[in-house]
Specification:
MgtE N-terminal fold, 286 residues, mainly alpha, three-stranded mixed sheet, 2 domains, CBS-domain
Length: 286
């Protein structure tokens, strides 16, 4: 039985799209029973590929403790989409059982209307304080287990207001004692947390960057919209033309390079080889 379960969990993790299609075809109770035999990480891999309505129905049929453990493994934006489809009583019970840190991310995402930048932002994209040194920032980034590193690191003040952005390459090549405030660029493209899908897609920052910071409540940092989210939006946008397809393709290439770089950094490897080319300067902003 342990071997069978292990194989099932490995298959869910490696082929989540195929498992999601099977779950979509099962009765709600049958799908819940099948997922309930797996650990929460494997269940989340498949459930995160299901439609929000279907995922909500399956979660509601699972024991609250297991459903909360599964929800905690999902991207907060994906989890919020499913939770919005659930009855209020079921949703509140699941959120109450989620570990506090994951619950905070979910509640932050849920406070923004569905389809807005705040609801789709990734709260695990790290921001660092502007009064730290380069060495302190690198140590902090390595210590955050769920941090999703990208090639721009956002900088906030002690009131958590967005004040700048760091180029990851500059950060890695700087002296450890150098203040990040001297490295960061203070003119940053940003997206309002209340921006709708049309405003997000039309934002000029996508011409230059693979991710954009999202702010609310007097410029307080909420998280970041990633190129992965943008690709999802371009896939469903009406009349997606050649420009959208080129943009999505370009961002995919950027993902391949920079995911590799962030993994090298997280594993404690050496400095990555810099990309040769003209650096795009930030300008403007919202």
């Amino acid at each position: 039985m342990d071997l069978e379960r292990g194989l099932s969990e490995a298959y869910c993790t490696q082929h989540p799209d195929e498992v999601a299609r099977l779950l979509e075809q099962m009765a709600q109770e049958e799908a819940a029973e099948a997922l309930g035999m797996l650990d929460a990480t494997a269940a989340a891999a498949a459930l995160g590929r299901c439609g929000a309505h279907r995922a909500a129905a399956i979660l509601a049929a699972l024991p609250v403790a297991y459903a909360s453990a599964t929800i905690a493994q999902l991207d907060p934006a994906v989890a919020a989409q499913s939770l919005r489809q659930m009855a209020e009583q079921s949703r509140d019970a699941i959120i109450a059982a989620i570990p506090p840190q994951a619950a905070r991310s979910l509640l932050q995402t849920l406070r923004f209307p569905e389809g807005t930048a705040g609801a789709m932002a990734d709260p695990h994209t790290p921001a660092v304080f502007n009064d730290l040194s380069v060495g302190e920032v690198l140590a902090h980034l390595r210590s955050v287990p769920r941090a999703r590193l990208h090639y721009y690191i956002y900088v906030v003040n002690r009131e958590h207001r967005l004040v700048g952005v760091l180029d990851f390459r500059d950060l890695l090549s700087a002296a450890p004692e150098e203040p990040v405030a001297m490295l960061m660029q203070s003119d940053v493209f940003r997206v309002s947390a209340w921006a709708n899908r049309a405003a997000i897609l039309a934002h000029p920052g996508w011409r230059h960057f693979h991710a954009l910071p999202v702010v609310a409540d007097g410029n307080r940092y909420v998280g970041a919209l990633r190129h992965e989210t943008l690709r999802r939006l371009t896939a469903v946008a009406e009349g997606g033309g050649d420009m959208q397809r080129v943009l999505a393709f370009g961002l995919t290439l950027a993902e391949l390079y920079w995911v590799g770089m962030s993994r090298l950094f997280a594993s404690g490897g050496g400095h990555p080889t810099p990309v040769v080319g003209k650096r795009v300067q930030q300008h403007g902003g919202e």
